Amino acid sequence: MVSQFAEKGYKSIFNHSQAAMLIVSPDEDYIMIDVNEAYLLGTNTTREDLVGKSVFTVFPGNPTDEVSKNIEMTYFSFEQAIRTKKPHTMSNYRYDIPIRGTTKFEERYWTTTNTPILDDKGEVIYFIHSPTDVTEIYKLKEREQAGVEALKNQRKQLYATFMQAPVGIAIFRGPEYIVDLINPPLCEIYNKTVDEMLGKSVFDVLHHARGLGYEQLLDEVRLTGVPFKAQASAAPLMRNGVLETAYLNFVYEPFFEDDGSISGVIAVVTEVTDEVVAKQHIEEAEERARLAVDAVGLGTFDLNLLTGEISTSTLFANIFGFEKPVSRSEYINVFHEDDLELRLRAHEEAIKTGVLFYEARIIWPNKSIHWGRVEGKVIYNKAAEATRILGTLIDITEKRQAREEQQKLLTLVANSVDLMSILGLDGINSYINEAGKKMLGLTTDEEVLTTPISQLHAPEDFDLVQNEVLPTVMSKGQWAGRMLVKHLQTGEVFPVFNNCIRINDPITGEIIGIGAVMRDQRPELAAKQALADSEQLLRNITTAAPTGLWMSNEIGLLTYVNQTWVDWVGLSYETQLGVGWLESVLDNDREKVRQKFLRANVNQQVFEVEFRIVHVDGTIHWCVATGKPQYDKNEDFKGYIGACVDITEQKHLQQQKDDFIGIASHELKTPVTSIKAYTQILERMLLKKGEEKEAGMISKMDAQINRLTSLIGDLLDVTKINSGKLQFNDRDFDFNELVTELVEDLQRTTEQHELIENYENIGIVYGDKERIGQVITNLISNAIKYSPGAEKIIIHSKRNESEVILCVEDFGVGIAEDKLNHVFEQFYRVSGDMQHTFPGLGLGLYISAEIIKREHGRIWVNSTPGKGSTFCFALPLKKKIVKSR
After folding, report:
1. Is the whole-model pTM more than 0.85?
2. Distance of CA 749 to CAs 341, 744, 783, 784, Å?
3. Which residue, 147, 315, 520, 772, has most beta carbons within 10 Å?
4. pLDDT tens for each residue of 443-498
């Protein structure tokens, strides 16, 4: 009796086991003796299909994958289990399962154990064939391996970019700041090789930088995670054995590991020594000029010709006899009355010639008369209208003061950064300032007086001086241009810009010498070369970019496309300029792209559009083009700089996702409908039996099925929207009547909230009543869901001349401002804790927005976090058709 009971118990356990099991005889045909329910379910077979038949008759070679070799593997595993009398396992092999009712197969991967069962003599009487479906695990592992490989490739690309970057970059690891990675530009700045830097503390290699505060800066970034930036920072650098002061722009960024911890610091360094030194020179020159102006007693003024207002220096006022600047009328009042007409004519002439010059008498408060010389330059606007005069005033009252001014000017010349010289008629310089002597390699004044100018030029360059420069100065009074001079000590020949003037005796008018001002052009040429190199580098970068890059002017004509775009469309560069690029856009998309670009250009807005092109390989590719408006220093619009990215792969993935959602939701709909029907029947049966508690549980189950049905409906609607198959049945209906019916139904779903109705007289509207009702229901349901602590929700409706507007106002959690633009996107849900508090797929608002869009309306939201949100939509009113008589 016990044996019979045990046998029945074991049989029941076998049949109800969750593990799939098949009992197979050890003979050469491997006949299937018994099978449990889990095995039948996993292989989509029946007991009649299997019991009493050979394994390899029922399960032949994999019908969809001949490479699998699963038959050979299974034979081998059976033989091993029988021969060794121990379990044998086959791992991760493929064998596809037929899909019932179709001729198709579903791809499956299995791990199977064959366990021999021995009799009292230790012989195998049968064995248990137990397969486990590992398809999901196998595919997950494949995806993980693909992800790892992609990450490796990405890191290789990042490393290549890092090493080829035009700025210095390094990674310093740990509290000792060991150089983990450093690129050649930074090594060049440090005057070290890569081998000298790698694997060592940066302060051990650049020991002269230790103790200057850089350690503290790096510690602050590494410990706090807050970046540090510095502009034109002076830094000591040992170069060629000499400690120099260099100026650097640098950024210290924390280096994050995959787990979010900070293990070091990324340094990005650019040397700006040349720029800083040049700026210092300019500032010094400007300061010398200012000092020179003050030193020579020049008063300065700025006259606004449009308003008549004048701004003057204090020295200007002093020359007029005032202690401080006064108004323009007060200055005019102290001119000698006999010179007012002369002054007026000088100003009128200045408007024509652009130059103001006159000398006039000024009467001081003590009635003494002084002479002043006024000189100025007229400034014109773009319309050639004179707007300002900038100028100077000098007191020329006494000769002594004139001699003093002459001495100050000589001081200015002596301290100029440019060469200033006076050449005698004998071909030898009588004077060269200190900057000039340094430029030409002259060491003493005596050497200046004994060196013919022929020695300051190469023989072939001196021909220009003899045949052009000197004759022109003698005949015309001035020559300006570029020439070559030679350094006496080094022999270096270099370019200068020379401005020569003829010097005449002020009394006799005879020529007594030639003055020259020379500026060394080497810094300027070096700067131009650096700019040219930079422009060439930029061209190389844009040519190598994997995205299409473009530029347009202010009227919307393309002025540049990079080689990537040319390679995509397979047409010449010239054909893509102007509006020619539109010919590369697919015919069906061209007008949309043109209109959107023109609108953006007119409104000077950020431009973005998706379109298709016929790729050079003959296939259709999807692209997204973006452009950012560009402005000059006067804030005038100059066109766009933009990029074009190939998004073909993303489009294919989106289509695959939409197809999957459509299939999955459609397949779910039928079984869910059946479950709901059985649930309602079961609830009525339980209520009839008086089992109210159980019936209540079934009622809750029915509510969850309703929620699942709603989610499936949303998925189906999204699929129809994306495929353009969402159907609309437009007709006339009473708008407020629809809203009232929906509010009454939704009020029953919430005991906490009072739905307050505030309607204007809307009347009849034209549209799909069911779809618009779907939108209203969604907005009110969302308001209930997202205001768990509120007690009321207000529904407004109103109309204007052209449209009807409905708003649903709640007093709930609200939405952050930076999230407002995303709430109508497909699958968008709030992030953080709210995501778990308010479940859903994020489809309701997307579907609502698409319905309103297809009804030619608009939808929007206003919200304040913590205070609530107001969702509104507007629909156009049906226009009345007036029939002509």
Report:
1. no
2. 94, 9, 13, 9
3. 772
4. 898 888 888 988 888 888 888 888 899 999 889 989 999 989 999 899 899 999 99
Q: Residue 253's closest CA among 156, 159, 170? A: 170
Question: Can you state the angle between helices 692-723 and 844-854, rounded to 10 degrees?
Answer: 50
Helix (H) or strand (E) holding 169: strand 168-173
Sign of the CA dihedral 880, 881, 884, 885?
negative
Position 876, amino acid: P
CA angle 762, 853, 627 (to 5 degrees): 135
332 CB contacts (<8 Å, ≥6 apart)? Answer: 340
Listed in sequence order, the DSSP H helices in 637-691 are: 648-688
Q: Fill in the amino acid letter for 867.
A: K
Rounded to whole angstroms, the Cα distance separating 161 from 370 reads 71
Q: How far apart are CA 513 and CA 499, in angstroms?
A: 14
- For 13-53, the pLDDT digits (tens) are 888 888 889 999 998 888 999 998 888 888 888 889 889 88
Separation of alpha carbons 405 and 392, rounded Å: 14
Q: Which helix (H) or strand (E) holds 250?
A: strand 242-256
DSSP 261-307: -EEEEEEEEEE-HHHHHHHHHHHHHHHHHHHHHHHTTEEEEEEETTT
Q: Which SS3 state, helix, strand or coil, does residue 318 take?
A: helix
Q: What is the pLDDT of residues 676-729, one digit of tens each?
A: 666 777 767 877 777 777 767 776 676 666 656 655 665 556 565 665 556 678
DSSP per residue, 392-452: EEEE---HHHHHHHHHHHHHHHHT-SSEEEEE-TTSBEEEE-HHHHHHHT--SHHHHHH-B
